[in-house]
Design goal:
The chain has 14 helices and 11 strands. The chain is α/β, with parallel strands linked by helices. The strands form 2 sheets. An 8-stranded parallel sheet has the order 1-9-8-6-5-4-3-2. A 3-stranded antiparallel sheet has the order 7-11-10, covered by helices on one side. Helix 11 (about 235-245) packs antiparallel against helix 12. The two termini are about 25 Å apart.
Length: about 325
């Protein structure tokens, strides 16, 4: 047991990222049943859809799970009240100040974890009273930090800046990278891409198949004038790159992005005009697996590599 397994009441310090259009109740409950901490991604759900997913997750497992809530969500008060009403015990917050909701959630008996991309914001999290921090490096998929600090540099910097339980994220998809995160000072890991491409993920099968064929360099951090997002190569990304190269304004970029672009790509499988988001580590993945298979592989690989580490000298 370590600080993360103790905090969440789980078997393994492995958290599944709460990704838009991927992290529904099926994925979250499967990860929790396999010994990790599953998260429902509220960012792509209308309030009542979130309520439905929480209830279905509870019916599917009596093990701990949580909800990931981007603080930029337009109906944030409604979402927070639903989480409390439905008895959710763990909330991960992101894309906003941890001071805004942490005290309110903790007063209602909820464990709060906040996602950061720099040691500066990690310190702000500690000041706000969060229970743990996710430090997410530049390699991560979806929305990303403006600092563009890699996980290898970020984790030790955050570890030095705070004593809070620390969860490493960004480019972690194997037992080997789990061991690396531990050596750098992390108490646990959060995996997005690996779980986004599992059988239980609610993403389109077309999206999963496409991402499992990606090579190095097929993802790129763009949309920096709006919200930095790691995009997969396709027609929409080409248009974004062209617009950014000619110096398009924020309004022009917002018009190009439009509404529902991520749903169109990730959930509906429009591989040409959809917004396809995935982490750099996708280029190492070639097989779609079940959550159980992924968890078993992670644990076995971690055990194998930690044995090797002791044989270095």
């Amino acid at each position: 047991m370590n600080r993360i397994t103790t905090l969440f009441g789980v078997k393994y310090p492995i958290i599944q990222g709460g990704m838009v259009w991927c992290s529904g109740w099926r994925l979250a409950s499967a990860v929790s049943r396999a010994g990790g901490l599953g998260l429902i991604g509220a960012g792509s759900m209308h309030p009542e859809v979130l309520r439905e997913h929480i209830r279905k997750c509870k019916a599917a497992t009596d093990l701990p799970f949580g909800v990931n809530i981007p603080l930029m969500y337009p109906q944030i008060e409604t979402i927070m009240n639903i989480v409390v009403e439905e008895g959710v015990k763990i909330v991960f917050t992101s894309a906003g100040s941890p001071k805004t909701w942490t005290s309110w959630l903790k007063e209602r008996g909820i464990i709060v974890v906040h996602v950061v991309s720099s040691s500066k914001f990690a310190v702000k999290c500690e000041e706000a009273g969060v229970d743990a921090i996710v430090a997410e490096g530049f390699e991560a998929g979806g929305h990303n930090g403006r600092e563009e600090t890699t996980t290898l540099c970020l984790i030790p910097a955050v570890r030095q800046a705070t004593h809070l339980p620390l969860i490493a994220a960004g480019g972690i998809a194997t037992g080997q990278s789990m061991a690396a995160a531990q050596v750098l000072g992390a108490d646990g890991v959060q995996l997005g891409t690996r779980f986004a491409l599992t059988d239980e993920s609610s993403a389109s099968d077309l999206f999963k198949e496409y991402c499992l064929r990606l090579n190095e360099g097929d993802t790129k951090l763009l949309l920096k004038k709006l919200s930095p997002t790691r995009l997969v190569v396709n027609g929409f990304r080409d248009a974004v790159e062209a617009a950014e190269a000619r110096g398009a304004s924020v309004d022009e970029m917002r018009e190009l992005l439009g509404k529902g672009r991520a749903k169109r790509g990730i959930f509906e499988g429009d591989l040409e005009e959809g917004e396809l988001e995935i982490g750099q580590i996708a280029s190492l993945l070639r097989r779609q697996q079940s959550v159980d298979e992924v968890m078993k592989e992670l644990i076995e690989d971690y055990a194998r590599v930690t044995q090797k580490i002791t044989a270095w000298f």
